[in-house]
Amino acid sequence: MRREKERLYDEYLAAAARAGDRPALARLAQRWQPKLLGHAWRLTGDGELARDVAQEAWVEMLRGLAALDDARAFPAWAMRIVTRRAAKAIGRRQRRRQTLEELAREPEASAPVNEGEQSAEFESVLAAMAELPPDQKSALGLFYLEDMSVAEVAVALDVPPGTVKTRLMHARRKLRQSIGN
Question: Which residue of 103, 105, 139, 142 shows the fewest CB atoms closer than 10 Å?
Fold first, then answer.
């Protein structure tokens, strides 16, 4: 029930922001920045790049919010923008790389720190999740951490629903193997 109330509140904020309500837009940004940043991090694996992606995504969202016909679609729409921006940023980064040696020297990304204490089990799941390929990590994060449906994840990642299901299946299998269940 709580998640449904949150979705309705987000829908209200998106509709109000679309109508020009600046405080609603500020509240929407405050609520969604951590989610969008987390999604960008799952896609890029780099905290600094994720922050850049999220910032670029907000610029695009602010420009396109008036054209969003259905406020209920805001979560998937916003995640899709982040997905596209992350893909562009990764593409730019890959084009800049001169050799495979530079790729090997690239530092490992660290997970964003969540507020409050995390259970050891949750920590182990997050650690195992960090080892997943970006496409599986992002699908898993949107489905479980952001509580999106398969259809919403498909829109957010700009892939068919069957691809989302396949990514979730492979991600779950890898997590089970990594955690040892």
Answer: 105
